[in-house]
Known about the structure:
Bound molecules: adenosine monophosphate
Radius of gyration: 31 Å
Number of helices: 17
Low-confidence stretches: 353-368, 401-405
Distance between the termini: 90 Å
Structural class: alpha+beta
Shape: elongated
CATH class of the largest domain: Alpha Beta
Number of domains: 4
CATH architecture of the largest domain: 2-Layer Sandwich
CATH superfamily of the largest domain: ATPase, nucleotide binding domain
Amino acid sequence: MSRIVGIDLGTTNSLVAVVEAGIPYVVADSEGRRLTPSVVHIPSKGGDLVVGLAANRVRVLHPAETVYSAKRFIGRRAGELSEDDRNVTYPVQGQGSNPVSFPIAGRDWLPEEISAEVLKKLKRYAEASLGEEVSRAVITVPAYFNDAQRNATKQAGELAGLTVERIINEPTAAALAYGLNRLKENSKIAVYDLGGGTFDLSILELREGVFQVLSTCGNTRLGGDDLDRRLVEFFAGEIKAAGGPEVLAEPTLTSRIREAAEAAKIALSEAEVTEVSLPFLTPSFSWQRQLTREELEVQTRDIIQRTREFCVRALGDAKLSSSDLDQVIMVGGQTRMPLVRKLVGEWFGCAEFAETRGDLRLGTDYHKAKGPLLNTSQNPDEAVALGASVQAEILAGGFKNVLLLDVTPLSLGLETFGGLMNVIIPRNSTIPVKAGEMFTTVVDQQPSMLIHVLQGERERAKDNWSLGKFTVEFEPVPRGVPRVGVQFEIDANGILHVLARDIRTGKQQVVEMKSAVDVDDDAVQQMVEESVEHAFEDLRARQWVEAKLRAQETLTATRKGLEDCRDDVSAEYAAEVDEALKQVDAVLQTEDAATGFGDPVKLKESVRQLDEITRDLAEVMMDKAMEAMLRKRGLI
Ligand code: AMP
């Protein structure tokens, strides 16, 4: 049986991906390019068709003979087209229920014939890369495509000499590429897809291993091109003001500026500032300027904002709210723009540490991270093609070995306050896997945080195996202010990469630990047995440590409060508080040096008594604070 390739037949660009040795990858052309513009030039003088990048290059010179965005027309009747749809530089023909065609160079071309040319090119790239004939494909289409559009896409494949084994939805393919088929049953995902010319938002639900599209909406005329156009207008205005030519009146100049604008936009996804240089717009006029990310954002923010209403609508159609979602995944080249990620994260109420799901653990309080995970872990322009290749491999009966996925033999985690083990990746998780949590400091002006990576099933850090340690440094600030996101990732080879990022400064460190999977079976057995054997004692130890942290905090706060208010309370009452403080202290002293813990129940009881006695003290403190405030404002 021959191999099946996965194809993302896009409005602007198309890609072909294959799975080899269990690894999906996008096939590059002979010059290493992986995106093929979905553009076909039909020379009126006769001669061979030109497809892809070369066709895109001649588009400005031969606008009436170069077909782009054929996907907007595929499988549609002429009567369904809007004014806007027909607004292209090549002729579009057809009326009423007739199919759409393009009369170029003495014949009528159907949209599927144009797409077939793009597919033939991709087929050739795949054949050159694999060194064998390729005759079967999985092709993706937008989730909103109707039967006619799907059938026409299938026909395009057949015209290109491919048996189309399946047409799958683009958001489903993206979710497969993100590996979300491994999420738990009924997980819900939003796929935010902002490409060059189109925007789609789809909500999927995983049911029995299959993604169901709950809702989908978008705009077929909204995308990265609009941002480019906005920049072109902005530059054109400045060029004119600087005494330069009227660039918008000249297609070749407009096209040069559009290229520079897109390049600047792309550069600003990484850099804060970039240089735009346009030498010799006329023989006597050159133009250049620096463009900052902020300027780009000011110019284009409203365009990105326009995607928001579709997100709201799709959620409404699916009768969900954003907190029902497990993940929001990013697809389409334009989602590399930091502002897009930031706004989407805000709209969906995504957890702050965007690349991992984690609990926000602040001090000893424990806040569950609210909202879905904003998942940007895959290459957004390749996700759809990669997902199509994964589907193709499944259809071809592959992935049998890959499905026997490795699991983590023992839990992996970090040492946290009080010497406890905080699990980040539980035992038996399927690898590759990624997870994270947010931490902060418990001491004022703490200059650094020690990241101590542990493996094992025991509650206390010291009973687990230490895989390594490193320190994250930050500027000293009050406790609770630093935010350190820690992410554990076990790659397909079982190597653990630990990333620690200071969220405030964005500084990060990645440390590679030894294999987290290669553990001797006997050692695993022993660790698990020990954890069962010591379960009771371990639990008590954890309870003790947690109670102790709380007791110490209460002691510090009460002692300070009592000092501040000693003159405002009676001597008897002060003595009563002192006694309760002593009681707590006394229980703390009972900590057994050998086991490292005491009786958590007794400790909690003594803290409860202290809390009760200090209720009056708290009121006095509150009154004092109020009085000080009023005095400060001159009100008393
Ligand atoms: P797609 O249709 O998914 O290929 O997306 C193409 C769009 O993504 C074009 O408008 C590109 O300019 C834009 N794009 C590609 N890479 C980046 C990047 N790094 N930052 C911002 N936009 C990008």
